[in-house]
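Predict the holo structure. Ligand: nicotinamide-adenine-dinucleotide.
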Amino acid sequence: MNILVTGGTGYIGSHTCIALLESGHSVIIADNLSNSKSESIKKIIDISKKEVTFFEIDVTDEEAVDHIFRNHEIDGVIHFAGLKAVGESVEKPLEYYYNNVVSTMVLTKACQTYGVNRFVFSSSATVYGDNTVPFVETMSLLPTTNPYGETKAMSERILTDFANVNPSFSVSLLRYFNPVGAHESGLIGESPNGIPNNLMPYVTQVAKGKLHNLRVFGNDYPTIDGTGIRDYIHVLDLAEGHVAALENQTEGVHVYNLGTGKGTSVLELVKAFEEANDIEVPFEIVDRRPGDIASCYAETSKAKRELGWSAKRDIVTMCRDAWRFEKNNME
Ligand SMILES: NC(=O)c1ccc[n+]([C@@H]2O[C@H](COP(=O)([O-])OP(=O)(O)OC[C@H]3O[C@@H](n4cnc5c(N)ncnc54)[C@H](O)[C@@H]3O)[C@@H](O)[C@H]2O)c1
C-alpha cells in the first residue's frame, strides 16, 4: 500500500515508516518539522534501504494536503502529526486545539474527497482519564486534565462520527501507552527539545550527565513503592502495531490499546535502567506533578485477538536501546 504518514519524521512516525517500508509498503511523509529534523528522512532511508517521498507541509493547511492527495495514489493515512506536551497544552490551549483537531479534520476531508478509506490515528491512553486500571477499550472515556488529552478525545470523536455515515471508511484509533526506546541501530530515537517531559529521556539525560538528577514526582501514590506506574512499550513494538492495524483493517471504527499490559513504577524503571546499562541514575523525590495519575496500564487482549499483535520487547531492551541512542546522538 501507499501510505501517507503525517508526522513521519517524528519519534514514533520515523520508527513506523521503517516498519512500513520493511513490510513492503511505500511511504509519503508530510511533516512541518516543528518538532523534528529533516535528517530523519536520510536515517529512515539508511536503515530501510528504501526511498521515501517527503513534503514539508503543515497538515492543517487544506491546500497543501489537497495537493498531495491530488498528485499521489494514496491507499491509507497514518496521522501522527500533533503537538504532544501536556504541560504546554495547558499554557497554549488554542495552539493545541487548532493544530491537533484541525489537522484531523483536514485529513479526513481529503480522504472523503479522494475516496481514501483507511485511516490510523495516534490516540493516547490519556483519554481514559482516571478510570480504574487496567484500561479496557470498552470503558467510557473520562475527562482528561489538559487540552492535549481533549484534542485526542475530540479527534477520536470526529473520526468516529465520520465513519458512522461513511460505511466504507475504516478507522483504527490506537491508544498508545508510554512509548520508549529507540531503533537498535541507535540512529533514530526520542530527542525532545529542552527538559524532557517523559521519564525515559529524562533518565538517559541524567545518566549522560546532561541533567543533574532525576526528579521523581511523588512517592505517596497507592502503588507498590509509592511512585507512579506506567505501561512502557518499546517504540518498535508500537511501530509494528501500526502495520498490523493497517493491514488488518476492516470497515468501521476499531479501538486498540497499544501497550504491554504490564505496569512499571518509576523506581522500577530507574533500577532496570541502571542494571541494563551498568550506570547510575541519581534521583530525588519531589512533590506530585499536577494532572498525573497513580497508575496507567493497558488491557491488551483485543489487539492480540484481532490484529495478531502483541508487544515483544521487555523493559531491559527498552532501557538498552534508549541509552544507545542517547550516547550516539545527543550533545
Ligand atoms: N510519545 C508519546 O508519549 C505519545 C503517547 C501517546 C500519543 N502520542 C501521539 O503520537 C503522535 C506522535 O508522537 P511522537 O512522540 O512521535 O511526537 P513527535 O513530536 O516526535 O512527532 C510529531 C511530528 O508531527 C510533526 N507535526 C506537528 N504538528 C504538525 C502539523 N500541523 N503539520 C505537520 N507536521 C506536524 C512534528 O514536526 C513531529 O515531527 C502524536 O500525535 C502524539 O500526540 C505520543
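The domain at 2-181+233-259 is CATH 3.40.50.720 (Rossmann fold). The two ends are 38 Å apart (CA to CA).
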